[in-house]
Amino acid sequence: MSSSRRSTSPSYWLLLAALPFLLVAGWCGIQAYKHANERATVMEQFSVVNDVYYGLLSVNAWEGQLEEMLRNQIHDFELTEEQDSLLREEISQLLYDMLDELEVMIQEDDGSFKKKLRKLAVNVFVDKEGLREKVPVFTERIMDNLTSEASKERLKGIASEQLDEFVGKIYDNRDSLNIRPLFQMYNVDSRSAFNEAAKKKAAALERTTYNYAFVLLGICLLFLLGWFFIMPRYRFQKPYFLSCVALALITLLTGLASPMIEIDARISELDLVLLEQHIRFTDQILFYRSKSILEVVQILLDTGKFDSMLVGSLILAFSVILPFSKLSCNALFLLVKKVRKNVVIHWLAYKSGKWSMADVMVVAIFMSYVGFSGIMDDQLSSLNRDTEAVTSITTNLTSLRPGFYLFMAFVLFSLVLSSLLKEVLKREEKLEA
């Protein structure tokens, strides 16, 4: 009995030694999942606020841009030499026309004494030709009055009031319904302030996510390297294999629950020149999606369509349930000899690898990334413009997310564990023989 206790004691010590690493790995997995999904939420909010629907296609966005442009035009308004000359001609002609109309009105005779008396007085006391000769003088005085600083300010004030009245009639409540709550959430009052806050938060969350993911991947690598020490020591192999299975399950769950690919197509800058003023739109989101495998499965199952539900069920079965079951059965197959004769467990431990689509899913996601990135680059390139009137710069920010790398790490880890299981069992058979 004492020898049995001595033989099993190192195994327990090994499990106790591995437990802190597993706890750290589990905590890092939870934190990586939490921060990755929080970043995805921030980017979703960013895509809503900067959606082209609320930018280039929004009445409010154009109203703000045009209002600023028109106010600048009003503020900087000055008559050119050509405009000054035309205005003088118009005023002079208007004065001549007024004198002509006045002459016609005076010379009209309706037979009344009052009319005749007024006609006589004008003909005697008013120098009509002198008035016509003074039209240029009157024109100059009117122009001096119109172009004085006080008159300019009054005219600008009138124009600004009319612009305010016009702007007040142009409003689209879609912005308030969907964007204002997000502004309140970030405690900002403008799109630019929101973008700055959201980008800063997303960048911080991304750094934190990758830090936790790298720690988890580092622990996986450390456990794999540990096999160089464990393989020559049979009594440590089973508990160490069990620890590796637990670590692989942590990596699998974190990878499945974290976003794997991010598709982001946007017009990073659009610059229009109108009335010598620049109208700029930045970060106009054309399309944005960031999903994990579990979210994709849920979306497919929630559609209610047979074909979508079938695809979702297949992904769930072969990329989620089967890899999880295979790892669990590997540990069970190694630790409990009685279950090795069970057909289901034997199949899951040895034969299910060819049915598991985890490795296929990694390749599919990577090919999807390459395909989406290529399609986006091709389509967005047709929107690029660089002319005097329009400058348009599109950007494809499609990228692989931490969930993909964690899921890929699980696939590689699982393949190594399958090979190690065979080696451990061979070693066991030799010792028992």
Description of the structure:
This protein is of the alpha+beta class and 433 residues long. The chain has a domain at 2-38 and 217-432. Helices cover 74% and strands 9% of the residues. The protein has 17 helices and five strands. Strands 1, 2, 3, 4 and 5 form a five-stranded antiparallel β-sheet that branches. A hairpin with a 2-residue loop joins strand 1 and strand 2. Helix 10 packs antiparallel against helix 12 and helix 13 packs across helix 14 (306-335). The longest helix is centred in the first third of the chain and has 48 residues, at 2-49. The two termini are 22 Å apart.
Tag the structure with descriptive keywords.
433 residues; alpha+beta; 17 helices
Give the structure's gist in a few sentences.
The protein has 433 residues and is of the alpha+beta class.
Q: Can you give the mean pLDDT?
A: 76
| Ends distance | 22 Å
Number of helices: 17
What is the succession of H and E elements?
HHHHHHHHHHHHEEHHHHEEEH
Q: Main beta sheet: strand number and arrangement?
A: 5 strands, antiparallel
Please state the structural category: alpha+beta
How big is the Rg?
40 Å
**Percentage of β-strand residues:** 5-15%
Helix content percent band: over 70%
Count the beta strands: 5
Shape: rod-shaped
Query: Which consecutive residue ranges, at least 5 long each, have pLDDT under 50?
Result: 1-8
